[in-house]
Specification:
By secondary structure, this protein is mainly beta. The protein is built from one helix and 34 strands. The strands form nine sheets. Strands 4, 5, 6, 9, 10 and 11 form a six-stranded antiparallel sheet that branches. Strands 1-31-34-32-33 form a five-stranded antiparallel sheet. Strands 3, 24, 25, 26 and 29 form a five-stranded antiparallel sheet that branches.
Length: 521
Amino acid sequence: MTRVRRCFLLSLILPALCVLVTEAGPSEAAEPLPFLMASDFSDMELVAWRIEQGRPDKANPLLEPEMPWDAGGVFSHGTVLKDPIDGRFKAWQISTPLSRRFGPGTWRHDRWLTYLESDDGVRWRRPRLGLIPWEGHAKTNLIMELWCSYASVNIDPRRKFPYEMFVFRYPGYPGASGRVKGLPLPEGAKKHPYGLYRFRSRDGISWEPTVGPIDLNTSDSCFIYRQEDGSYVSFHKTELPAFPGGVTPFDIADGGVRLIGRRTSPDGLRWSDPTRLVMTPDWRDPGDTQFMELCPLKVPGGYVATLTVYHNHTQRIDLQWAASRDGINWWRPDRRAALPNPPLGEYGGGMIWPMRQPVPDGDRLHVYYSGNESLHGDLFNTDKSGPRRLKARGERLSRQSSSLPNFGALCRATWSSGRLWALAPAIGGPYVGTATTVVRELADRQLLVNVVTRKGGSLRAELLDGGGRVVKGFSAKDCQPVQGDHHRVALRWQGGKQAPKTASRVRFLLKRCFVYGFGVE
């Protein structure tokens, strides 16, 4: 069994610490240890989950509305990644000109696909391309005309056309051409229908369509990911009737609740149906909790994902972390936002819309997003609020379902790789919390942990046999306490640094410390 395989099996366990070390060792530069999940433990006492909040970049906003075609918002619904071909940061995202009212309480959202580049991921530029001109501008960074949304870009340098894109198109949108250039019209049709279209490119800038619309039974909020074996998986928004107590009359989906479904495809054309629900609110969530997007990234131990959480009582959107071992069964370590909204009026104060997936960058993990100043809907509208008004302790709330323009800018937040959430003592101070893993294969293996301790804190561990008894020489008292900041440090006991053959579980003892990951080798 290889080191990677061994680390995966025991990564499912938990944070373990046991070494009195205050300086990072050479092994700590290796890839992060597998993250922790609640299912890794059979018993927990006086511990809880700590969520690390992202650090907004000091340079935020990275790119603000400036040109006529993005004056209404540098939005998201696209992909940001570090191109494996040339190493540059690139973005394919939706931008909008200034929006116009379409009717009472409604707006037109003219969505154009634009292209951005950056050498360092912070200073972004709009390349002056000659693909689509704008009034008075012969060269723009526009790469696809009206109407576009949810651009999923996959890159494979081994292919003749390394760049592949799935994107929703609405050629019949007011002001659009009615055609997807390069594709024949369906028999008897005068316009191409709304739907998901597939494109390819040699350089990621000039795109040619290959097929569409694809028969994927969803029409919104859908990102598509190419797997290592060449197959595809999509995570998309779907909807069911609202749960009891969840109806919000001023929400667009009045009477519905937004959930996340998963579909698979061997080739990107034939998709599984019906969708499999993989993320729904539960009894721990407030009644207005709904989900817009699930954006996963494969990491040691499984997958982590940003979860776009819609709070429809306040018309805000923030981000939580979610985790999965298999990409199907998802768990959230907490219900608190990992990237919360700043005050209204600032970028992100209304809604935070992430790009297609987090971006690894050395020992950091970036989440690029459009920080919207705007709320999702005009919930306090008293002018065109419909036949009746709702009262809430002196406030009058709208009955008009609407979707406001997405005025925002490109921003990013950063986390340390492998440190998105941790197990921590529930009381703190001198009080010790414990967490005991489920049965794992430990014999003759070394235990590694990802941990940070605070002043006066430490991490210890003891090994248990199949009957739950402490193995001699491997008790908490025999464990060398781990102190300091370690991404990858080995536990040691008086009985040795390798687990004996009788060991099958680990009990961690946490005192003013945060355990982020655990593995074996």
